[in-house]
Inverse folding.
């Protein structure tokens, strides 16, 4: 089990904006199905490594991305 | 589309690829129209659906609409349907070239009005509506400006903020050179999406536990599976338009329109119904004949010369009433970005031959 950070969104479109923002910025993060434990508004979420949290949330905020929730969770792999 | 699944419905790679394509198309459309936020681009099947969404979503009993004498049935028919639900509307007349009478519009705006819906260019005569003059009048009257840009999206520079457009309806398959079955409504910063009731409600891939339709954009207005294939194609075509530049497209269209108008002017018995000025119209030109029926000529142009035109009423009886071309309608020629000067010359030559015979 590894602990990861997750950014959750209200809509798929906002998740897509987040994905595009992070790709443009060259930040390592990926779109994954939202873990059921976190519940959520939208079926996809951004998963990131915990040390990158500040950079990632900063880049999203600069791009006007509004997360529904940011959470940490232990997941397999 | 082997590399794309259903957008926004799952977290696997194919669904995410599809979601990315749709989002990139939203960005391209927002860029093209100067929209502040790609999430304010709502995808629909066509301009008709976007106009229906705006009109039926905004208007209720007691509301009044002002519109013009060159509207397409995509506006006229929803307005007639709304009339049965207590919405009233007035039509500001257009002249025989399809040009809006601004003084009449001003008069119509003296009484309270909720929405002014304007055809940016007549799909029959090509006449352009002078938005820079219209939009201040609409806003002084406290109304929202809904623009039908079916004829002009991709063909003329349109910036929703600079031109004061509150809502813009577009189709993908004309000037945007995208696939049929794509279009959308751009909701400007000046319009409140919360005031627009959705046309459809259902699955959005978001907030599934909620019984009410979510308010977040674009999900409020986009229920059910999107036309992902078509929207991906639209995104690609809009990106290529952004590369070429709308100004270059407009210059091309104007040069062809000039050539076409000159050529038509030389043919005996041809009457042009429109501004006859490339500056004041799109590359759409409507004609009738002193001695021929428009549908006969349209058939012969296609059959004998491979020149494809459209004869009749063009889903716009209001426009033909303004032009004085009811009940037969006109024969419409239109040029696009892939049309060449040689194509125009061939069409003119073909018209000379079929009208002299």
């Amino acid at each position: 089990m590894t602990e990861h950070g997750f950014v959750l969104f209200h809509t798929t479109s906002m998740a897509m904006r987040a994905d595009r923002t992070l790709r443009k910025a060259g930040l390592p993060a990926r779109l994954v199905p939202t873990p059921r434990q976190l519940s959520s508004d939208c079926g996809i979420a951004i998963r990131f490594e915990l040390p990158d949290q500040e950079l990632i949330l900063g880049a999203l905020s600069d791009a006007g991305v509004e997360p529904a929730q940011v959470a940490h969770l232990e997941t397999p792999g | 589309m082997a590399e794309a699944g259903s957008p926004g419905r799952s977290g696997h790679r194919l669904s995410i690829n599809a979601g990315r394509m749709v989002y990139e198309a939203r960005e391209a459309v927002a860029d093209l129209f100067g929209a502040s936020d790609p999430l304010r681009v709502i995808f629909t099947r066509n301009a008709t659906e976007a106009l229906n969404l705006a009109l039926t979503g905004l208007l209720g009993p007691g509301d009044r609409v002002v519109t013009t004498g060159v509207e397409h049935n995509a506006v006229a028919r929803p307005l007639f349907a709304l009339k049965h639900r207590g919405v009233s509307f007035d039509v500001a007349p257009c002249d025989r070239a399809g040009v809006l009478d601004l003084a009449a519009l001003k008069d119509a705006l003296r009484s309270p009005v909720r929405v002014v819906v304007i055809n940016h260019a007549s799909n029959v005569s090509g006449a352009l509506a002078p938005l820079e003059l219209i939009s201040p009048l609409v806003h002084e009257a406290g109304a929202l400006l809904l623009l039908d840009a079916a004829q002009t999206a991709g063909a003329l520079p349109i910036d929703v903020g600079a031109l004061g457009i509150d809502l813009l309806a577009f189709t993908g398959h004309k000037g945007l050179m995208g696939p049929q079955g794509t279009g959308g409504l751009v909701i400007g910063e000046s319009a409140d999406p919360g005031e627009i009731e959705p046309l459809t409600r259902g699955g959005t891939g978001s907030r599934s536990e909620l019984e009410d339709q979510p308010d977040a954009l674009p999900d409020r207005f986009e229920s059910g599976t999107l036309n992902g294939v078509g929207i991906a194609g639209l995104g690609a075509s809009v990106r290529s338009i952004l590369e070429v530049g709308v100004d270059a497209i407009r210059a091309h269209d104007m040069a062809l329109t000039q050539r076409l108008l000159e050529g038509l002017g030389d043919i005996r018995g041809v009457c042009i119904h429109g501004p006859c000025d490339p500056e004041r119209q799109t590359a759409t030109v409507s004609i009738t004949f002193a001695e021929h029926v428009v549908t006969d000529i349209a058939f012969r142009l296609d059959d004998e010369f491979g020149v494809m035109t459209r004869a009749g009423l063009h889903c716009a009886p209001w426009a033909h009433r303004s032009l004085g071309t009811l009940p037969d309608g006109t024969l419409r020629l239109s040029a696009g970005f892939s049309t060449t000067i040689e194509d125009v010359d061939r069409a003119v030559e073909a018209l000379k031959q079929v009208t002299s015979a």
In short: The interface with chain B takes residues 9-17, 19-20, 31-34, 41-45, 64 of chain A (CB under 8 Å).
